[in-house]
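REVIEWER CHECKLIST
Item 1: Sequence provided? yes
Item 2: Single chain? yes
Item 3: Sequence as submitted:
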Amino acid sequence: PVVKASFSDVAPDQGCFDAVEYVNAAGLMGGIGGGRFAPGAAVDRATLMTILARMDGVDPAGGATWYEKGAAWAAENKVSDGADPDEILTRQEIAVMLWTYAQNKGFDVSVGEDTNILRYDDASAVEAWAVPAMQWACGAGIVKASGSSLNPGAEASRAEIAEILMRFCENMK
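Item 4: Structure as written out by the authors:
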């Protein structure tokens, strides 16, 4: 059978295809307009705050800005302070926001307590405030390494956040 892609810039043979289709079908992430997803574009804090608000059942539409209600939800739930919505997120910042969200929802985040991230070449680059979240995200299979590197300070693309969100939704209960 022929698989039809939802977005013109994400083909069925791309590694991120399933994740992009998943987050689109779940209503977590849509396109950027013109039938495109922009898989290589960076993810800003406003985007993730809005996605997490949607995951929590909040309708983020109707604010003065497209992210206003998501930012308010994030601040109220202490997932983020709601500031710097245009700041591009790093992998460790995404892990912290998801870890905080998981804790708030009562999900089991104890897997990180026994996860040793020191085996990764760049484990020392993980900021102290992000270590528990990165341990959890790696232990739960939500954040994947690239070879022997975690790349904690690297900016995450829309394709990567789609993959992280799919694994989060599938692994967390």
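Item 5: Key structural point noted by reviewer: The longest helix spans residues 91-104.
Item 6: Recommendation: ____
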